[in-house]
Amino acid sequence: MKSKTWWIIIIILAVLAIAAYLVFSMTGNAVWGRHYCTSSKPCAAGIGDCDVGSDCLTNYCAQDVGAKYGRPATIDVCEVRP
What we know:
The protein is mostly helical. The chain is built from 1 helix and 2 strands.
């Protein structure tokens, strides 16, 4: 019985750790998180998920180019203006 209880605890902790990672990476300060590039902390070209040009050091936020960076296609990325 004790062995079964430990496995349940381990599984619960693993699920919580994965959930915390996913929440952080999508909303937190992870490089590809939604709020990583901001006007007060702009990103360099090829880094981060931007929303507007002022979120980028290059002042250009390319729309829906995430696939070029191995991310979901809908992610906007700071790039050098073509």
